[in-house]
Amino acid sequence: MATKSSRVNVTFGEATLNQLSHLARQEDMSVAGLVREFTLEALERREDFYLSKIAEKLDKEGMKTYSHKDAWK
């Protein structure tokens, strides 16, 4: 039976696995679910970082600004 989600095999050292196991128990989650959640959060943060870098390059002092209402006319 094929699954819709792909699987990834990740290997952790004993100390890291112990931390993940402890956190997973506290959150009442599986270790795999916790790692998935952490990965999605990290990807979102990285995307936000790169988008803010692009915005900084486009943000020039003294440029004319538009209100939200005017921008969507």
How are the elements arranged and paired?
Layout: H1 14-26, H2 31-58, H3 68-71
* Range of helix content: 55-70%
Low-confidence stretches at least 5 residues in length (pLDDT < 50)? none
Structural class, from helix and strand content?
A: mainly alpha
Number of helices: 3
- The sequence of SSEs as H and E is HHH
Radius of gyration: 21 Å
Largest sheet: none
- Cα(first) to Cα(last) distance is 50 Å
Strand coverage percent? under 5%
Shape: elongated
- Overall mean confidence score, pLDDT: 92
Count of DSSP E strands? 0
Quick recap:
By secondary structure, the protein is mainly alpha-helical. The protein has helices at residues 14-26, 31-58, 68-71.
How does this model look, in words?
There is one protein chain. It is built from 3 helices and no strands. It is mainly α. The protein has a domain of 44 residues. Helix 1 packs across helix 2.
For this entry, give a set of tags.
73 residues, mainly alpha, elongated
